[in-house]
Amino acid sequence: VFFDIDEVSDVYFPSPKLQESDVAEEKFENEIADYEASFANVKVLISRPQSNDGLFFNLLLQDSEEGFLVDYFNYKPDVSEFLAQVESSSMFLSNAEYQGPRFSNLDDALQITMEKYLREKGVDMELAEFVFSYAEVKEEDSYRHLLDNVSKYLSR
To answer: Could you provide one GO biological process annotation from this protein's UniProt record (predicted)?
Structure first.
């Protein structure tokens, strides 16, 4: 499971509904911004070591009862090569690589099967809560480290 601490810690928690006196256009723009800010990308690779292949999922993590939403997934015939590529380039997919179809465009039965598979592999609300908690702790550590360094710098 791969995720960006900053991206997860920046997931927006929606504020109360706008008052009716607000202009409709402003309300619409705010709702769009709220929606876009409410997701964080989480990458999951589920592999079979004996055959060195696996499925790579790009998931959207939302702070809601749904937790993870599948954005897309694809098959990786050589997991070792894929992980080496990720490590060397810090990219999960090159611009030329096919990411797979949008999950929402797939047959409903396949969507249900893949969501069940993810839950069976532990990609569930418990993992979502762990990701949020871990990101919060790491963000707090980074913040304290920054304050400590700034304090040392200013005291010189």
So the answer is: cytosolic ribosome assembly
